[in-house]
Design a protein that fits this description.
Elements lengths: L1 E7 L6 H8 L2 H4 L2 E7 L4 H9 L5 E5 H9 L4 E8 L4 E7 L14 E4 L5 H12 L8 E4 L3 H10 L4 E5 H9 L3 E8 L5 E6 H6 L1 H17 L6 H8 L4 H10 L9 H13 L9 H4 L4
Parallel strand pairs: 1-2, 1-3, 6-7, 6-8
Antiparallel strand pairs: 3-10, 4-10, 5-8, 5-9
């Protein structure tokens, strides 16, 4: 039995992994898949891949592309979720900010530098014709940290996945002023290069198992109720989220990688572009 350390965010997108682990599907293939939730998000996961604390990450596309161009010794082996991530833009419910334009010169809370909440602040600024170089940041680590920072006024807005943040909106803690979808597939599966080179067939087997799980996930009986219960959501919200979410079983295409890198480069998030072969390994 080969131990494999995998990491991801504790969000609804990753329930197919949890179900496959619980049902013993990986163990049947000789894989002891040890999942660790990383609530701090993509920036923390990039560091864990670099430090060999994880072999595989289910990670935001823009974050891992940025980190691989900056030397992270990992590769994207597949797109995991093909649909965009809908980032809600949230303010404290008691704040005086009511529209997106109110936030132009304010401070954004981010989980950490290099995270999706950091990078998407630049995408949103570009969408709104704000000066990206004028963005100000407050590192808050987790969504709980963001609640504290916005409530105390140390930061003014926070970008996080629309549906996972909705319970905080429903409780009257946050107010959502807008949404900002990613202009690319939102999650990919990335593997540490040394692990990939030494365990190529295992990675192929692992992908086969998760791809089988995601291809039938939406058709599972009562899956919306399982998701709602597991992630403390309203069933009606989960049904809407499921209607917008498409899992993938395919590699990241060169044209899409070019689009991602070009936008990150234009925003000065990366200072050089890597080749397709340096970022993607088709297994």
């Amino acid at each position: 039995m080969k131990i494999v350390k995998i990491i991801g965010v504790p969000e609804h997108f990753n329930l197919p992994w949890q179900l496959a682990i619980t049902e013993g599907e990986f163990k049947q293939a000789g894989i002891d898949l040890q999942w660790t939730d990383v609530p701090e998000g993509t920036g923390k996961m990039c560091q864990m891949l670099r430090d060999n604390e994880a072999d595989i990450a289910v990670i935001l596309t823009e974050g891992i592309v940025k980190d691989i161009t900056n030397g992270n010794p990992s590769s994207i082996v597949q797109v995991y979720v093909d649909s965009p991530l809908v980032w809600g833009i949230h303010v404290a419910a008691h704040s005086n900010y009511h529209t997106l334009s109110d936030l132009e010169h304010t401070k954004v809370a981010i989980s950490r530098y290099g995270s999706g909440s950091h990078l998407m602040a630049y995408i949103n600024a570009q969408n709104e014709n704000w000066n990206p170089e004028g963005l100000q940041f407050e590192v808050v680590n987790t969504i709980e940290g963001a609640v504290k920072a916005l409530t105390e006024g140390r930061a003014d807005y926070f970008m996080w996945e629309h549906f996972m943040t909705k319970p905080i909106v429903d409780k009257g803690i946050f107010r959502r002023v807008a949404d900002c979808p990613t202009p690319w597939p939102c999650f990919v599966i990335a593997v540490n290069n040394t692990f990939l080179q030494n365990n190529l067939q295992l990675v192929k087997d692992l992908l086969s198992i998760i791809n089988s799980a995601t291809s039938t996930f939406k058709n599972m009986k009562d899956i919306e109720h399982v998701l709602a219960s597991t992630y403390h959501q309203k069933t009606v919200d989960i049904q809407l989220w499921l209607s917008k979410t498409e899992w993938s079983q395919k590699p990241l295409e060169a044209t899409m990688l070019n689009k991602i890198q070009n936008q990150l480069f234009d925003l000065k998030i990366i200072d050089k572009k890597a080749t397709f072969a340096e970022i993607v390994k088709v297994v």
